[in-house]
User: What shape does this take?
Amino acid sequence: GGAVVILFAIKAFNYQPVFENRMSFWSDYLDKYPNKSFAYEGLSKQYYFDGDTAKARELMLKGLEINPENLDILEAASILFQQLGDYKQAEKYALKEIEIDGKMPKPYFQLGIIYDAQKRYDDALKVYRKALKLKPDYAVVWSNMGNIYYFNNDLLNAEKFWTESLKYNPNLVTSMQNLVVMYFSTNRLIKA
Assistant: This one.
């Protein structure tokens, strides 16, 4: 028993530098498993968080080459490209997720964010509704739809959707804040 513990302690000590930060962890993981798309995805995220968006993009695309049908890397790619402002690529990967498995609400949610960022509000509302059909209690989708209605001066629907989001997640701060701002700006603060 003691020899096993000592062996693991030595092994852990030898790997200590690898786990000191996420970048070294994912670099080491990719060195060990160069054919795993998950390794490219993980390292891509670290480069993105460190501000090297070109390297993040390169690694994500390499991971997609290895496993172009993997839902996890498709989701990560859609999010990455949306954050980089490459909405065409982001949309492509979200639609690919939906093509593979259209019964998951998250790709519709992601697609709504992509459309919303481009001010394609009708398209965003359409895919958000699809997300809600699949997951009626998806609070953040209700909230995002409220935002779209608010920015289009449809305060009645904005209030309805933000209130509905709080029904499913009473701690959704953005919906609470948005309602307070709306009530304050329309002199209805008493209701909040």
